[in-house]
Design a protein that fits this description.
Elements: H1 7-19, E1 42-47, H2 50-55, E2 59-64, H3 66-72, H4 78-86, H5 91-103, E3 107-114, E4 120-130, E5 140-149
Length: 150
């Protein structure tokens, strides 16, 4: 992976390499050491219908890179950032997750938000489906986000 590429290009290239001729790679095939250059800007979300009963959404963050925690403000902890990303209902993000689960294809997002420190954060993100076993069901979503504060 060249240092010149954007995070979406790096992740997509890695994802395509891992998936081969399948719809998408397995979550167990993702190696953070192989994504060392961008791992701090990545996230991993599990997709599980059982989470709907607990928190109203099938999506649950299981990894959030430090750069993404920083984007939301230094006063927040990792758990608080995860809760803000999904709840009380970041509909744009949930829509993208739903799209990935349905289409089983990568998606990109470019938008902005105000963080806890009232700074405008403009970002570009990419998200890709991952499996849990050899089924055709999306069980995880890996993504990455680069941002700038204004």
């Amino acid at each position: 992976m060249s240092g010149e590429q954007r995070i979406n290009e790096k992740l997509l290239s890695y994802w395509e390499e891992k998936k081969g001729s399948r719809l998408f790679p397995l979550e167990s095939e993702i190696n953070p050491d192989e994504l060392e250059q961008v791992w701090d800007s990545c996230f991993l979300v599990s997709v599980d219908a059982a989470h709907v009963a607990m928190n109203g959404s099938p999506y649950h963050y299981i990894y959030l890179g430090q750069s993404l925690v920083d984007a939301y403000g230094d006063d927040l902890g990792n758990r608080q950032v995860c809760e803000q990303l999904i709840y009380p209902g970041n509909m744009s993000l949930i829509h993208h997750f739903d799209e990935i689960v349905t289409t089983k294809q990568p998606a990109n997002d470019e938008s902005e938000f105000k963080n806890i420190n009232n700074m405008l954060i403009k970002y570009r993100s990419c998200m890709m489906p991952l499996g849990k076993d050899n089924s055709d069901e999306v069980a995880y979503i890996i993504g990455g986000m680069k941002w700038k504060a204004f």
